[in-house]
Amino acid sequence: MAHVKIKMYATIREKFKEGEVEIDAETVIDAIKKMVEKYPILRDEVLNENGSLKNDYIYLLNGRNVEFLEKGNTPLKDGDKISIFPPVAGG
Length: 91
What we know:
The chain has 3 helices and 5 strands, in the order βαβααβββ. The chain has a single domain, classed as Ubiquitin-like (UB roll) (Roll). The protein has a 5-stranded mixed sheet. Helix content is about 20%, strand content about 25%. The radius of gyration is 12 Å and the shape is globular.
């Protein structure tokens, strides 16, 4: 079990004022689900109805997109940092 930090950005950050959350987990999806258990207000923000990572969000592990790693099954190590970015649009 790894001790990791999760930080949310943009619109998620506006709704959730905690800043960084520290969680013990084995994989990225495990960490996100444990965070949601602790802070249920985040459930619809970061997970689909079936409990998987939202496809339109960006989940980074130590600055690398988990989409190019093992997605939600990416294993964690002590000290890892997960960053969550919601979709953004601009012009």
